[in-house]
Amino acid sequence: MRILIIGASKGIGLETTRQSLAAGYDVRGLARSASSINLHDARLEKVQGDALNQHDVEAALVGVDAVILTLGVGLGELIKPVQLFSDATRVLISAMKDQAVNRLICVTGFGAGDSHASIGLLQRVPFQIVFGRAYDDKSRQEMQIKESGFQWTIVRPGVLSNGPQTGRYKVLRKPSEWRNGIISRSNVADFLVKQIEDQTFIGGAPVLVN
To answer: What is the domain range of residue 66?
Structure first.
């Protein structure tokens, strides 16, 4: 299988690229800074492109079996209106339909969509002040994905750390279980790679915490 990872040059995307290669997949990594991906493997194709550019995304989707969307924004961008997630997802959904690609795995975060109601009362105000613009857009992104008709899985990690890949983390599937917590980017990537062929969470949006 060939996997397209959008946002492959850093963070969860880079770690997902590394683990996908280790799992034996052919990987196409799309990023504006794809040349900086510090991985070397014959099965890795580094593609420089913009997730907001329809032509770039359509070209990257040719011959792909599944897409993992791992876009993020920097702290400095949180003080401005955020539209990256919904805009990029709109482009991607259109391109996937054109290329007949049906499997989409997307990272959003705890606090997006209907998981927002599970944020503790003491956390809600500071969360909204700091992350509100980004997570409002992640919620729009989730709605687009749910209405896409694809075989989708939305993944909502808690607070991200740079810890190791242990494979030991909780997958909270039911709304009654949802809570915030810490999880390493490597463990998020571990879950993402498992979703490429596992159908357990198709149509689901679990929360991940350690």
So the answer is: 2-209
